[in-house]
Amino acid sequence: MKIDTGYTTTALNQGAVGFVERITGTRAGKPFNAVLKTQKKWERQGDPLSWRREYDLYTSGLGKIFTNDFRIPECYHAEINENETKLWIEYVEGTSGADLTIDMYEKIAEGLGRFHGKMYAENAQFSIKNLADPNGMKNYYHYNRTKGDTYNYIRSAECKIPQHLCKMIIEMDEQSDKIWEKTEQLPQVLRHGDFFPPNIFYKENEIILIDWDSAGLAPLGEDIVCLIADNGNVENMADYYRKCVPAYMKGFSAQSKSFTMKNLHIYERIVMHYSYRLLDNENWRGEIKPPTEQENDFKTLQKIYEMGGYNEYF
Fold it and tell me: Does the predicted model carry a pTM greater than 0.85?
């Protein structure tokens, strides 16, 4: 018996190494709606297998460790060859990106905390071999800190960057080893690795995360660093910080009573993760960035500086 299938495709995103398209149509008279994500082989700095990570995660049964209200899209079919992967996955609808409200951010942070608390309480075990380096954030900090000569420039007499911002970064450099040592003593949980608004969908209290090519085990709280500092709303960054950190801690504590919540050093990790990236000396001293982008970088650093006045326990 022949089964009639008709479909149309719509490009959702096209990059140098990946292509995402929505597929809609009917099969045997029933409508279907899916996404085909094609990922070409490429090599990320320090993470050569990231190009195939989503394929590895989906085929490993990763979805089983999530909950009904905090999950990944369902994967219908997966293929791989030596040059690319293809994933046919659920098309996700909901509020995402710049449309997320601060109240949604708070619920997303609490949902992430519950998921991480559940992982910790149940000592979740899963057989996934291709995970990102658990020291990825620390390595990224050291890479940007030693790249070029921004480190020396912010300590020089010729520096044109506001001194209070330089002082913030220098003081964090001086205590960075102790901060990383403390965070490495926190429980390790599955981090998304790119936990920012376009990868998060919120729908009727359901949270769905896409794009898992940076996923790995990491110390508690790492995704919250990205959620706060990569939200694209610089003016309200401090409000996101004050809302999201306690919400995350609340969610984690509700699931895990055996771990006494300590200082997660979210603020310190934000300073270390973003400061040198924003102050890339080739952009600042070579004036490669347009003035409007430089101004936004200054504004972001200033907001990070202002966040330092808040305590994580509020």
Answer: yes
